[in-house]
Write the structure tokens for this entry.
Amino acid sequence: MTRAHKILLTSLLLACVVMAAVLIRLRNRAQDRLQEEATSAPSMGTAAGTPPSAVTLYVPNDLDASLTAVERQIPLPADANAEARVLLENLVQAFHAPGSTHPMQVSSGVNEVYLLPAPSAAGQTRSDGELAVVDLTSALAAAQPSGIEPETLTLLAMLATLHANMPAITEVHFLVDGQPRETLAGHADLTRTYLASEANPEPNPQTAPAAP
Amino acid sequence: MQPQFVVVLDAAHGGSDTGARLGDGVMEKDITLGLERRLRAALRTQGVDVVTTRDADADLPALNRAQVANHAQASACLVIHATATGSGVHLFTSSLSPASATPVLPWQTAQAAYVTQSLRLESEIDAALAHAEVPVTLGRASVQPMDSLACPAVAVELAPLVAGNTTSARAITDEKYENLVVSALAAAIGSWRNDWKD
């Protein structure tokens, strides 16, 4: 190998290392920016001075498996995805509040909510509703008391709150930190898509469903 | 030929799947296995054929639990859970919408064909627990392996007793409390034995 070849090879190697370093730096910057956007999403779209809107949160009671409607005044963002997230975050704050009837030691429960057109049923050309993909935080899953009743109540409270305030949402699917997960905390099934109206089932004389 | 009356008991969790941690080192998997053993003994004294999904502290996927239950062609399936939250006994049936039985049932939603019977079984258990003065909450839930069970199925979740107007506080490990619940469940299965074919 001549001296010229050696210099060329060394230069190419050096260029590769510099390019790799630049790419890693750019990727980290993009990641930081996305993280920052995700963290500040609830306030995004809520213009300063936005008047609060009346919303209904459905708060569970672990002792009788009921959901109680609680009226709140909350400034809501214009963006529907952010609105759904703000609603659920306020619900999680109610779980965390002193004297909560469904106590959960978690301050932030929802990473993001994505609204998509609900998949059409077989034979239908289009669906009228929206599918909400709710990305829960792993902190919420870790703080969730384990059991069929407490886990089901958490999901039903979220379904009822979305259904009451954003009736266009007809279906809800849950993720945890962006990943599909089998259960919320060992019991309630997260592999299936829930109907938003599921928290308010048809009256059944044989059951006392956990419904508002 | 009369169909045989068989009850399947599924003690939830097991092995590396500890289930809920119920305080003082008590794990859900141990409570469920203890309840299953006592209920199995109580039912066998009544002459009921009992099939269990697990008899030891072992891992058992939901798929295998459903296989055991469905192979038994059971007249009743009780999925036993425990939690530290709430009070009394929580009874759950599948949240699937009732559907007509077909010769071949889809595995993921086999329970849909049995939801109406499951609600009747739940009603029998509710009545027996009320008779024993144990508070009950009823609900619908999506919990595996319930949706894959081809039998009248109810999830029975034991919670501690919170002191109230008619009840005094009882820990989930309180033997008297557990025996009270087991006796009520055995009585409910006894009633179901007379009614299940209606």
Observations:
- Strands of chain A lie at 53-61, 66-74, 110-117, 130-136, 169-176, 194-195.
- Residues 38-44, 201-212 of chain A have pLDDT under 50 and may be disordered.
- The radius of gyration of chain A is 23 Å.
- Residues 47-199 of chain A form one domain.
